[in-house]
Structures are given as structure tokens and as C-alpha cells.
Design a protein that fits this description.
Elements: H1 3-9, H2 23-34, E1 45-50, H3 53-63, E2 77-83, H4 88-97, H5 101-119, E3 123-127, H6 132-138, E4 149-154, H7 168-171
Helix pairs in contact: 2-5, 3-6
The chain binds flavin mononucleotide (FMN).
Length: about 180
Amino acid sequence: MNFEELILKRQSDRKYLPDPVAKEDVIKCLEAARLSPSACNAQPWKFVVVDDKEKLAEMADAAEGLGMNKFTHGVPVIVAVVLEKMNASAKLGSLVKNKDYCMLDMGMAVEHFCLQAAELGLGTCIMGWFDEKRIAKLLNVPRGKRIPLIISLGYPAAPTRNKVRKPMEEISSWNEY
Ligand SMILES: Cc1cc2nc3c(=O)[nH]c(=O)nc-3n(C[C@H](O)[C@H](O)[C@H](O)COP(=O)(O)O)c2cc1C
């Protein structure tokens, strides 16, 4: 798969086969995230992989709400992405330039994870809608640490869709805004 094919392949999968995911494939996705860029190389993330059946059931309950994320029941792996502290230079840069570098960093690492998963034939869905406190408690995340995102991971049970996106003219311009 070349890069263009890969980015068309990656999508938010909301239907999964019950088949387990090989640990080495999960590790490949983690490695892709580990190699992601970050402001001042702070790497302010920790990926907590959940494959324990009981915890998965609780994660799915915590992800579901107002009709969202019902599909998480039965997903073989869910990863909670914990926001870790930035290093001093990233923190200073973030403050001086008034930019949330750590959230940008995390978004990129999560996308690296998902692209690697797609390359392995796995499906993912990045989720920002879930009961964060409940997941933090379940996974023993230290008090005060945020979990901006969770990611479902498994073999997709639905075909690849066409992308629905804004037109090129709306999302880009050349030489001026
Ligand atoms: C930060 C973020 C949060 C998201 N939260 C959810 C979510 O809670 N539930 C869900 O089903 N999809 C969620 N999505 C997936 C988006 O809906 C999806 O990426 C978008 O519609 C584009 O579709 P595609 O990923 O299939 O290309 C989220 C995506 C991002 C990047």
C-alpha cells in the first residue's frame, strides 16, 4: 500500500469482527505512535492498551452515551491515550506562543497509530466522547492526568467508505489567506 492508498484506507471503523488482534501488531501501532513528532520532542503521551475482556466491557460502557460509541461493545482492543507532562521547553514555548502543543502532539501520535493500524489491515476509531473519569478510575490513571482520546482497534467488519470532506478551495489557499 502506498501512502495515498493508506490515507484512503484509514477511516473511523464502527463495526468490528470479534477476532483478536495479535500483540505484535498492537506493538507496531504503538511504535508508530512512539516515533511521532512532538514540540521539543516532549512526547507527552502514554498509550494504555486494554485487551482484558472485563475491562473492555467497562470501557465500552464508559464510551457509550447519547447514542454515541455503542459500537465499542465487543471491540477486541481499546487504547486510552493519557496526556503526560510536556518537558520544560515545550511548556515554556506553549505558554509564550499561547498554543496547546501537547494536544497537537497527541493528535499526531494518535494518527500515526491509526495509519499503522490501517497498513496492517486493522480498523480504528478515534473517540473523544466518553466518560473520562470512569475510564481513569478503571485504568488507575493517576489523579489529575487527562485522557483526551480513546481508540478502538480491531478487524473491520464493514467496507472502506468514500471520504466526505470539504473541497480543496475551502481548506487551502496559495500565497494569501
Ligand atoms: C478528536 C476526534 C474525536 C472523535 N470522536 C469520535 C467519537 O467519540 N465517536 C466516533 O464515532 N467518532 C469520533 N471521531 C471520528 C470522526 O467522526 C471522524 O474522524 C470523521 O467523521 C471523519 O471520518 P473518517 O475518520 O472515517 O475519515 C473523532 C475523531 C477525532 C479526530
